[in-house]
Amino acid sequence: MVEIVKDKGAQTERLKVILNSYKLIYKRDFDFYEVSLRIEELLATEPYLEAEKLAIVYEKMVHEKYDVPIITVRKNNKSYVIDGHHRCFSKWLLNQEHISSYEIHNELFKPPWWSKNILDIEMIKTGENVEEKIRDWVTCMDVLEYLRRIHGTNFKLIPMKLEVMNLIPTQYPQRIIGSRMPSKAPILVLKYKERFYIIDGHNRTYYAFKKGERYIDALVLVPARDVVPGIVLYSKKLGINSIKEFAKILEIDKFQ
Question: The domain containing residue 229 runs over which residues?
Fold first, then answer.
């Protein structure tokens, strides 16, 4: 079962344990300060992110305003994350530039030789069991990592309410409708040149359209630099420019 730090109180206790460990290792006390750090400047001390854990942390930030300080070590004017890698990445995905940290000043600290920018470490899927409500969020992280790899850039993942009629399908209707009951999770959408392409959630979007709902909750992927995602080119080739056209094709196919 994936576990995350419950709240600020629990994180304070974790900080005490780390400080006590450092005291035993280095034979001295260390000072710490609560500071606000720029996420893009932080260095990682873990080799990868876990997709399942990232999905849980990100979902809690979106729905519960989850906000627990990370723990960093300051050495040679650089800040190394020793607790809170998933919180850092989730905050950045949500388009936030800074994160609160309990920062320990320790010039004796030895970071891993491979330590790299927090935004550059890869994401892996561990196969850890998660609650049903989290599975669609894990899918979002899978897609995010796939896009990171093929385009060589990071993507923000920003919650938005989008107009159903403005969404552009990227799959043919017969491939997805009726495959399962619509999830309650936000759909996953890619933003490209002010247009929004559905990546995951055609089923949810279709039923929202049929019920006459004007808006739908979405997680919007926004590349950190200009790229032309393949799904945009495929969508143009598919030639379905709106969910209304998507629904019309589906209804025609039903009676053939």
Answer: 131-254
